[in-house]
Amino acid sequence: MSTERNSPAGGTARDRTPNAARRSEASRRAILTAAFDLVGEVGYARLSIEGIAARAGVGKQTIYRWWPSKGAVLFDAVLMLAQDPGGGTAALPDTGDLAADLGLVLRATVDEFADPRFSEPLRALSTEIAHDPALARSYAERLDGPLREAKKDRLRSAQRVGDLPEDLDLDLAVDLIWGPLTARWLHRTGPLTHAFADALVAAALDGLRGAAAPGRDGTGRRE
Amino acid sequence: MSTERNSPAGGTARDRTPNAARRSEASRRAILTAAFDLVGEVGYARLSIEGIAARAGVGKQTIYRWWPSKGAVLFDAVLMLAQDPGGGTAALPDTGDLAADLGLVLRATVDEFADPRFSEPLRALSTEIAHDPALARSYAERLDGPLREAKKDRLRSAQRVGDLPEDLDLDLAVDLIWGPLTARWLHRTGPLTHAFADALVAAALDGLRGAAAPGRDGTGRRE
Description:
Two copies of one chain form a homodimer. Chain A is mainly α. Chain A has nine helices and no strands. Chains A, B: GO terms for molecular function: DNA-binding transcription factor activity; transcription cis-regulatory region binding. Chains A, B: Residues 25-85 form the HTH tetR-type domain.
């Protein structure tokens, strides 16, 4: 599943016998699940490797063998949850109605942010990233990158049917749709509701449909 | 300047003689400046009350008398910087050209985020807020609230000259313009450039100009 240096899959030759690999993968999943559950219960400040080990039923050394810090454990825990069972990133819904599909996705995110079991680990990861450029690079590569590609794929599909301009800056588009939600959640500056998700999608899409025009050289949008 | 319980202005009767008040205010500013400078140099994790006291040339007890934690000191330091000398919040530029005015403001923010002297304290405050609902409330009231009002004032001015729809959700508008910048900065998910600021303003304004239409009951925009 993972080819990271510290992961079980990259362990010693002894670990690579089928049974040992299965046991390693089971331990790994138990540790990540324990980390995710614990941070939702006690908060990141009180999360400890000891606590994770006790909850997962493994020794501390098993955790330290694979991860350098509690932040690294939590990162892999969030990564595991963001991936589908095959280890890939789930595609966004594509019914042909872009606003409806994005509305569904953003409403689901609003619901996740409202649930401490999800929002507490994500908040912890988010603040670790803010202070740790190395973790931020890892996040950008392994978590934000694949998620962002999935988002862009949905936007590209909209471009193909003429629902978004062909020359749209897709990174700007992703930021315009998802950034306000992230910012409001992190800074707690306003209510996170389904109505906000819907209004955000409507305003962002209006902006993206018009956004390509002003900077262009007068050729207009192609149909 | 401040009427907070822990601030010098709210001190004992003895402190209220003019000279003592001046000395208190001087100490307060020295402490806040020291906190702001230090966090930019050593990072929030290594910021300590002891270090702030040494840099400001005051005793630790002076700091503890006014603030409960280093997070609270830093919050007031950022607040001091966000206010003009009279203690108010500076208005946004209003030349009549909304896109140009917002472009100036967002480019200035991009420059601030690129400067560790500003971005490190802001990042520290931002993550404290993410984990501390009480500090988040204080932030929403004393810092984000006044800044948000200044932003809304500029948008209201645009509404008065017919440059933005009258029935715009101004909180959504502020989030759509500033949220993507905040999110990209905090999560380090893309380059923060003047070009990004300009593209963001263009896309957000297009969105806001069109955003009121779909949900309306067919009365159209009033001139």
